[in-house]
Write a structure and sequence with these properties.
The chain has helices at about 1-65, 75, 85-95, 110-115, 115-120, 135-140, 145-160, 175-195, 200-205, 225-239, and strands spanning about 70, 100-105, 125-130, 165, 195-200. The protein is α/β, with parallel strands linked by helices. A five-stranded parallel beta sheet has the order 2-1-3-4-5, sandwiched between helices. The termini are far apart.
């Protein structure tokens, strides 16, 4: 009888030890599991923080680059008075930032595209104002070719992390039909692509495309006073 009782107690002790071992193992596994989850969450948070810092730095650098390049033809150059009296200089003074005049006389959109790397990319600006169209209209360049050149300039701007801004060509005697087509297309294109558009004519001309008094000496190009008004207009828009 005593032997039987002893065997029962041994069995009970064995069962109790087994339960203890299983319980200890379970608690250990649970603790490791919690540690793994915490480690994973910590790793995820660090990755998110890193991405956030990278994004913040990228935005800060983009916003910090206030330099602007004005790419255009005679209307950007400041003809006939010259660059010292152009709207580009007035814009720079009003914004208190660097605005480079890359306007040249007798220029088409194709000419601007060909010198884009040398005159714009090399300067590493934050933005570029693309003021094309009058030269194309006066040289009977087709609307299709004009569109292709402007889109190529925009693509180059984007690929070099430069924000493009588009300016509408100015009304001009003898080429008004072509210029109107270009202006309409630029407005539609800019709306689709969400570009900022500058309409310099609105600052110096009436609704019929005629210069307001004092803003032109020949009804073709702006006077010094006209370029002053154009620069002040651009500054209001860009501010």
């Amino acid at each position: 009888m005593r032997t039987y009782r002893l065997e029962i107690r041994l069995i009970q002790l064995t069962v109790l030890l087994s339960v203890f071992v299983v319980a200890a193992g379970f608690l250990g596994a649970w603790g490791n599991s919690k540690g793994s989850v915490a480690s994973s969450a910590s790793s995820s948070n660090k990755t998110s923080e890193t991405r956030s810092v990278q994004n913040t730095n990228t935005n800060t650098n983009a916003n910090a680059n206030a330099k602007i390049v004005a790419l255009g033809d005679s209307f950007t150059y400041g003809y006939p008075a010259g660059p010292d009296h152009s709207w580009v200089g007035v814009l720079g003074e009003n914004l208190n930032t660097t605005v480079l005049n890359k306007g040249k006389v007798f220029q088409t959109s194709k000419d601007m595209l060909s010198r884009f790397d040398a005159d714009v990319v090399s300067e590493k600006p934050g933005r570029v104002i693309i003021f094309a169209g009058n030269g194309d209209a006066l040289r009977n360049i087709s609307l299709k070719e004009f569109q292709s050149n402007v889109q190529a300039i925009v693509d180059k701007s984007r690929s070099n992390h430069i924000t493009p801004l588009l300016a509408l060509p100015m009304p001009y005697p003898g080429a008004q039909e072509a210029i109107t087509d270009m202006r309409n297309w630029i407005e539609e294109y800019a709306q689709t692509e969400r570009f900022l558009v500058l309409d310099f004519a609105s600052a110096v001309m009436d609704s019929n495309g005629k210069y307001l008094k004092g803003y032109s000496d020949n009804n073709k190009y702006p006077s010094i006073k006209g370029y002053q008004a154009m620069g002040e207009y651009a500054a209001r828009v860009l501010k």
